[in-house]
Amino acid sequence: MATIKDIAKLSGYSIGTVSRVINHHPDVSDKAKDAIQKVIEQENYQPNTNAKLMKLKSSNIIAIIIKGYANMFFSELLEQLQASLAAAEQEVSIYYLDENDDEVETAYRVYIEKKPKGFIFLGGSLEHYDQYFKDADVPSVLLTNDAKHVQNPYVSSYTTDNLRAGAFAIQYLIDHGHTQIGVIGGNPNSHTANDRLAGAAKQMQKQNIYFDETFYEPGRYSFDGGYTAMNTLLTRHPDITAVFALADTIAIGALRCIKDHQLDVPKDISVIGFDGIDLGQYCIPRLTTIYQDIEKMSKNAAENILLRMNYHKAAEHECIPFEIIQGKTVANRK
Fold first, then answer.
1. What gap in Å lies between CA 120 and CA 34, rounded to an integer?
2. Of 55, 70, 245, 322, whose CA is between 20 and 30 Å from 220?
3. Contact, 231 vs 208, CB < 8 A?
4. How much is the average pLDDT of 240-244?
């Protein structure tokens, strides 16, 4: 009987991608879905639902909680995580939440009901950790947020310096001659978004560039969220020459909006994103963006939680360096 590893090998896709197709997750391309489904039918593969139920009831799983359905950065991060954990024959259970949901409250319920061996959080806010999770004695890893000030000593974290990266993105636009700069996207309750926004605002203040709340438009981490935020910002400030999108998913939606306004990127408006997702390099033009090291972030997270699930090791907190991907969406106006 074929296994999920057989389906992955025959289809040419990762175990993580095959798992998402089997579990009907929305973040899989039609091409991948069709190819994997074809192999599943050819091999007459049947998921073992009894085994799946037993694993959910066991204490040997790692629960991965993902905050946001449409954030493509988390999709890429999840795939790398699943590959690393699968190589260690570690089972996982995945929980998708809306970006406005409380991921820590959900984790606490899962902790009480399922008793997982560990947690990995993709995204989230910090204020609820001390409220709900301070007494949970299970190894956990928080990705994209710095948890060194969280009271729970079992929580590790791996993140980018979002404050510094936000400032870097703005300085890159300034160095290319831009002084009318807007910022779009992000949830006001997100520490990650707030740090990127704060870094951007501080850098503009430092360079004596005017920036107030009217130059910022929040939006969901989705293509539609980026489109809507860009549309609102253009209506409010049609004279802007550059936009910093707080995520690549948002930036890609903004590119479409700018095109629909009969404007050109980068001739009329420059765009810089954040994350470095693969899709950004297939946009027309290729997206200029701040790159987060997904491979290192996921590898460190997997190694750390596996180590702490089996040995009494202290949590650690690491800030992983970022870099700029110089695409074609930022014009030099000097």
1. 29
2. 322
3. no
4. 98
Domain holding 236, by residue range, is 162-292
Measured distance CA(198)–CA(190) in Å, rounded: 12
| Contact in structure between 143 and 159 (CB atoms under 8 Å) | yes
Find out whether 185 and 247 touch, Cβ atoms under 8 Å: yes
> Does residue 329 lie within any of the structural domains?
no
CA 164, distance to chain mean position in Å, is: 18
Count of residues making up the chain? 334
Within a domain: 333: no
Phi, psi of 68 (to 5 degrees): 120, 130
Query: How far is 211 from 201, CA to CA, in rounded Å?
Result: 7
**Structure tokens given for 52:** 């799946």
In angstroms, rounded to a whole number, what is the distance separating the alpha carbons of residues 291 and 76?
A: 13
**Residue 195: pLDDT band with limits 50, 70, 90:** very high
**Alpha carbon distance 144, 127 (integer Å):** 15
Regarding whether 143 and 76 lie in a shared domain, the answer is yes
Does 95 share its domain with 229?
A: no
